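Page 42, continued from yesterday. The earlier attempt failed because a stray header line got pasted into the input along with the sequence. Redoing it now with the clean sequence only.
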Amino acid sequence: MTAQKEWFKTWFNSPYYHILYDQRNEEEANKFILKLKDFLHLNGEDKILDLACGAGRHAAFLSKYVGESIGVDLSENSIQQAQKTYVADNLEFYKHDMRLPFRINYFDYIFNFFTSFGYFKKEADNLKVLQSINKGLKKGSYVLIDFLNATKVKNDLVEREQIDKHGIEFYIRREIVNDKIIKHIKFDAEEKVFSFTEVLQALTKNDFHRLLTQAGFEVKTEFGGYELEDFNENISNRFIVLARKKQ
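This time it went through. Structure tokens are written below.
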């Protein structure tokens, strides 16, 4: 019996994924990165990794402020798009599975933006990701993970939604099952009916603290949004955690 393909390997490599999520605000994202640059004092000596970089715009934006910026993603289509769109001497993109190490004791910062974590069936894979991040960082260097606030998402869950993008009607149904946030996506295109499912582990602040500690990190600070405001589990839209690799 053939093992079922992990959902994100198919969906993230689909052109319809980029159509559905094209509303993501680039101006907001760039402001967030500028705030991080100032907060972390990024400089021309730093080597950074954008882990699960998608189509590469954030790695490209960061390359203006650091010595070396690398983006990796499991989606071959996204990496090919990034390589064509963004070209700079200090910028590179590679196809890579985040559960595996990428360079050892190399980076000053590893960033994981916009809920690009917790996709896996097994929690052990989350730990593999963090252990691989640990291996990639120099001693005393930092990882930043930008995740949704699972508590607020559960409390404010929008169960059904219909979104029109470029003439395609996306029908979305959300549910919480076994502490996972599941999004069912259906639509017609090219005279075919498509169906995809996103499955995200509803990881909380306590989950991240536990996993980061297990992986050899110490949590330094947390934010609740892209203005770097304090995290409040009841009202914050995001959970952004900065952790330091232990010496």
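Notes: DSSP finds eight helices and eleven strands in the chain.
Reminder to self: strip header lines before submitting.
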